[in-house]
Amino acid sequence: MSTIRILLATTLLALLCACASAPYAQRTSERQAAYAAAAGAPVRNFRFFTLYSWEPLSDRQVVIYTRGNEAWLLDLGGGCPEISFVNTIGLTSNLNQVMVGFDKVLTGRNNFPCTISQIRPVDVKSLKAAQLRQRQIRSEPRSADKPAAAQ
To answer: Is 145 a member of any domain?
Structure first.
């Protein structure tokens, strides 16, 4: 009897986890699409002094903000499996320049290196405008007529 309860509880938990991950996956793909649309042509390097903030988009992409209004979309060659699960990251640089193929994103306790395969500047202004448009709610006044079933 208790084995059946354990199996039912485990099955219920698995179903709840599956339902909870669907909206997360949708939000993640929307974020990836928004950043891809706001990203410019690839560049070889960018100036780096401070890591303002960052956001993992997948195990192959991360967005690095060097200022509140300056961001870079980094593609990570070979993937970076830890990036979605760590609290902090680091970037290597040489003379305050982060370069494609040379510098890395460092993750985890052991600073697992993830090679940067592409850098694209993000137009933060257009990204924020697109996010604002997505949040807008279209409202229409209700009809003054009552539905026929309610009469």
So the answer is: no
